[in-house]
Amino acid sequence: MMVQVRFFAALRERAGRDAIQIDLPEGVSTVAQLVDWLAETDVALAQALEATPRRMVAINEVLGNEDSVVEAGDVVALFPPVTGG
Amino acid sequence: MMVQVRFFAALRERAGRDAIQIDLPEGVSTVAQLVDWLAETDVALAQALEATPRRMVAINEVLGNEDSVVEAGDVVALFPPVTGG
Amino acid sequence: MKTHIEVREGGLSASEPDLWLRDQGRSGAVVMFSGQVRDEQGKVEALHLEHYPGMTESVLGTIVEQACSRWHLNGAWVAHRVGTIQAGEDIVQVAVSSAHRQAAFEACAFIMDLLKTRAPFWKKELIDGCWIWVEARESDDQAAASWLQDATGRAPR
Amino acid sequence: MKTHIEVREGGLSASEPDLWLRDQGRSGAVVMFSGQVRDEQGKVEALHLEHYPGMTESVLGTIVEQACSRWHLNGAWVAHRVGTIQAGEDIVQVAVSSAHRQAAFEACAFIMDLLKTRAPFWKKELIDGCWIWVEARESDDQAAASWLQDATGRAPR
Questions:
Q1: pLDDT number for residue B6
Q2: Which of C17, C56, C66, D102 sits at a 20 to 30 Å CA gap from B46?
Q3: What CATH code is carried by the domain that includes residue C102?
Q4: Does any domain span residue C67?
Q5: Considering only CA atoms, which of A63, B55, C47 is closest in space to residue D59?
């Protein structure tokens, strides 16, 4: 299934990309599984994720967590802990 | 001993006076005794004090209480609970 | 630490304490409280504020000093109006600056709670053409006492 | 109840929320928080703020809704800057109006605490000519969690 993954802040800079479109294989259905799959299939992303061990996630612009379910067409955003205000 | 007694707000209006100079007899040495003495010696003040049963007191511009000691030359202010802000 | 304590007849505006507290990056947080004349569903046309000149400034100064001894503040501004004030206008402003927001929130609330119960101001309301003295509120006493409980559980004067 | 939620590149001034919240005597209390860029003893020259357009406004809206469900508010204003901001300038303003001051203080602190931990903003600091990402602070997580403990003692998402 197709999903969009977006990166922000330090993770965006480390990934060298704002966003990617990916076709997830069967069996990848949670945020944790998505992150593992990204790290397995893309060395640059693996390094960016490893360099950003504290992360937050939003699915379709709503905060989620590692166990949140990812569905076709979702926009999954990965980013470091927020630091506004 | 001579002291000045000042009145504020509703108590001032009820007393019909801003301030009085009084010569306290011996034995009147606390705020409570001063208030009792005022009520005994001045009918108008007795009525004003009775109509203002919740009161605060300041001696020389510092908040005190019924047991505070009054000394010659003091300025004793009597007023209803404050309502600023 | 700078402090500004003022009793005035004229109007208050939020930009005054905001500008006065600015310190080129020393503070990270400013909390400002503005107290305004409520009309109580159109019932109250105006307020009249009386105070005890001299004592007012001295009490406000003491309250601000107490706040400074409890929290790390860079600045504190207290301005209170007296005289006649229309519904919707500001009666009082308390604004404090600090490195961090929690100190600023707490110190600002503390100053207001103590001001409400200790500073010698009295207000009357204009209702149906008559001036009526406002009664002190029990809840204000409780708010002030909650900051001031000493080890014995007694609220000190 | 009126709300204003805004992300902007330009500067903030205290008079804007002050004027916008005025309601001719309905509210008795306005509490305003301004967050400013600290220079950390001259170390930090500027900040750069990045955000997630769309999600930011939606998260801020949700936080304000939560505040409205907990306290009786008449108005809430949240404005946050993005882009480059110099030391001493305002980053964020949160201002709320209510009949009484306790609700206004609490709601304003609540909105700030949640904004700090949930709204998708990220800042980097310009130090010695280099931009360095700011790390999130543990104390901010704790401040937000303290509002959100449910009956089971778990902080809900």
A1: 98
A2: C56
A3: 3.90.1170.40
A4: yes
A5: A63
pLDDT greater than 70 at residue D152? no
Q: Nearest C-alpha of chain D: how many angstroms from C52?
A: 23
Chains that touch C (3 or more CB pairs under 8 A): B, D
How far apart are the C-alpha atoms of A54 and D136, rounded to whole Å? 9
CA angle C145, C149, C154 (to 5 degrees): 95
> Quick check: helix, strand or coil at residue C78?
strand
Domains in chain D: how many in total? Answer: 1
| pTM for this model (two decimals) | 0.94
Question: Tokens in use for B65?
Answer: 């209480």
- In this structure, is residue C88 part of a structural domain? yes
Instruction: Determine, yes or no, domain membership for C24.
Output: yes
| C44 part of a folded domain | yes
ipTM over 0.90? The verdict is: yes
Residue C116, domain extent: 2-151
- Note the pLDDT tens digit of each residue in C50-77: 999 999 999 999 999 999 999 999 999 9
* Nearest residue in chain C measured CA to CA from B9: C122
Contacts of residue B6 in chain C, CB cutoff 8 Å?
52
Contact residues on chain A for D35, CB-CB shorter than 8 A: 85
Confidence of residue B3 (pLDDT cuts 50, 70, 90): very high
Q: How far apart are CA D100 and CA C143, in angstroms?
A: 12
Q: Looking at CA atoms only, how far is residue A64 from chain D in angstroms? A: 8
Q: How far apart are CA D80 and CA D49, in angstroms?
A: 10
